[in-house]
C-alpha cells in the first residue's frame, strides 16, 4: 500500500525540521519564557535572603 522504495528527499526533511522548530517555538515559547523569568526571580530573592542573613 505505502511501500517506500527510496529514502526521503533532503529538502522534504529540511522543510519538516523547519516547520517543527517554528511550531514548537510558537507553542512552547511563551510558557517557557514565563517559567524562566519566575525561576530567575526566585533565585535572585533566595540570594538576597542569604546575603541578609549572613
Automatic annotation (TrEMBL):
InterPro entries with a match to the protein in the record: PIGBOS1
Entry-linked Pfam families: PIGBOS1
Domain of life: Eukaryota
Keyword terms: Membrane, Transmembrane, Transmembrane helix
Residue stretches spanning the membrane: 7-28
Protein name stated in the entry: Transmembrane protein
Organism of provenance: Rubroshorea leprosula
Amino acid at each position: 500500500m505505502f511501500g517506500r522504495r527510496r529514502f526521503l528527499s533532503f529538502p522534504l526533511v529540511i522543510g519538516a525540521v523547519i516547520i517543527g522548530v517554528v511550531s514548537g517555538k510558537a507553542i512552547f515559547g511563551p510558557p517557557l519564557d514565563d517559567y524562566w523569568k519566575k525561576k530567575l526571580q526566585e533565585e535572585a530573592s533566595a540570594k538576597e535572603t542569604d546575603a541578609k542573613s549572613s
